[in-house]
Amino acid sequence: MADPFAWDESLLRRYATRGSRYTSYPTTLAFREDFGEVDYQAALARSNASGRPLSVYVHIPFCRNICFYCASNKVPARATRLAEPYLSRLDREMVLIRQRLDTSREVQQLHWGGGTPTFLSLDQMSDLIDRLDARFGLSDSRDRDYAIEIDPREADVLTLRHLQALGFNRLSLGVQELDHRVLKAVNRVQPRALTEALIDEADRLGFRSLNLDLIVGLPLQTRDSFAATLEQVIAMAPARLSVYHYAHLPKRFAPQRRIRREELPSPEEKLAILRTAVTMLTEAGYVHIGMDQFARPDDSLAVAQRQGSLQRNFQGYTSHADSDLVGLGVSALSRVDDVYTQNHTRLAAYETALDASCLPVSAGLRLTFDDHVRRHAIERLLCDMALDLDALGERFGIDAPRYLADALSRLEVLEQDGLVGWRGNRLEATPMGRLLIGHLAMAFDAYRPSEPDPTDTNPL
């Protein structure tokens, strides 16, 4: 395999410290607990004047089987009837939000995440869609972006046909790995045939885009085993691939205590796995969009990146992020007007708030002018792999080099290491810098903690 980059392993090891994926700036670490329901209600009301389209995220926390690597907010459950009280509370949350929100605005994006959204029965999925349509008015536009995360063990061809009938046009399959030994070690055994059957049916039904999730750093994984997985995945020809980094934090996440540390790949082997992933996917024609995301050149993400319109939100890269994002469900995040909010992360607290007819906000933040400037700088870096300081200065009416002098000073070391260069007042990531784009973004982060949140990481 020919390397697409002049791979510098010593440099990658030096920058192996964890950093944020910046699905928001400021990140959730900066959210304040004294930000509450009244602040969110005011933001919902202010957002109506913008006329921006809406994006709705729904968190379904239930999982029938807990994977040992998982760091998501989930609720173990076996029977789908256990989701009924939760669905009722989701509807109550919608009602409370609708009281402040102009719902004539188009719901351009819809995303169901988890947990395992396909834990729900087909009838429950239909019921939830009906409630969303009744409260917000869902779109039938061809340009809508309606996606759902799928566990191949919890879906079949009938599920996909039902999802298409409900209006979903994008799918994300949690594959993680195809090596049986690795899957067994993380309690996620799923035959390859399940994944292939869903991919074939999704293609036959004409879903607009299919994303496969993979994880690097799982127990018993090697560069050779992951190469074998990638060879099979590439043959499946998904439009998008997300290659996530596993962070082993057993003290924080109980399921991870079932993973044997001695079976995890060494740091050197993990770098070799990453090198294999980048090389094989690039040779197969995938574009490394940035961070953890790869896409085919004709996919909407790659097209948006070439056009300079790619954006980023709590779900990652998107071509439809110029909207107000309303998050529903336990732990859900929202980005409305100039605020971020997060719902209670504990199911009991979420339920208690809604039973008292209160929005279940646990923390949030209203952005300052400085936050807006730095958020834009970080977003353009992550999406364009470059930052035009002249355009930034014109957008915000500032002398950008002077205003961001602290960030530019921090970039000097990265420039010396060959990760970034200048073309006039345009900052551009080098090929190696693209692999470490999160570290370039960190230079602009005014909230940078000495110890970043290790669950919000990816070396790509």
Automatic annotation (TrEMBL):
Pathways per UniProt: Porphyrin-containing compound metabolism; protoporphyrin-IX biosynthesis; protoporphyrinogen-IX from coproporphyrinogen-III (AdoMet route): step 1/1
Cellular compartment(s): Cytoplasm
Catalytic activity: coproporphyrinogen III + 2 S-adenosyl-L-methionine = protoporphyrinogen IX + 2 5'-deoxyadenosine + 2 L-methionine + 2 CO2
Gene3D superfamilies, per database record: 1.10.10.920, tm_1862 like domain (3.80.30.20)
Cofactor(s) named in the record: [4Fe-4S] cluster
Any Pfam family: HemN_C
Matches recorded under InterPro entries: Coprogen_oxidase_HemN, Coproporphyrinogen-III_oxidase, Elp3/MiaA/NifB-like_rSAM, HemN_C, rSAM, rSAM_horseshoe, rSAM_sf
The keyword Transferase belongs to this UniProt entry's keyword annotation: no
Superkingdom classification of source: Bacteria
Molecular function in Gene Ontology: coproporphyrinogen dehydrogenase activity
The keyword S-adenosyl-L-methionine belongs to this UniProt entry's keyword annotation: yes
EC class of the enzyme, as a word: oxidoreductase
Cofactor note: Binds 1 [4Fe-4S] cluster. The cluster is coordinated with 3 cysteines and an exchangeable S-adenosyl-L-methionine.
Domain Radical SAM core intervals: 48-283
PROSITE patterns: RADICAL_SAM (PS51918)
EC number(s) from the headed UniProt entry: 1.3.98.3
Function: Involved in the heme biosynthesis. Catalyzes the anaerobic oxidative decarboxylation of propionate groups of rings A and B of coproporphyrinogen III to yield the vinyl groups in protoporphyrinogen IX.
Family: Belongs to the anaerobic coproporphyrinogen-III oxidase family.
Description of how the protein assembles with itself and partners: Monomer.
Protein name per UniProt: Coproporphyrinogen-III oxidase
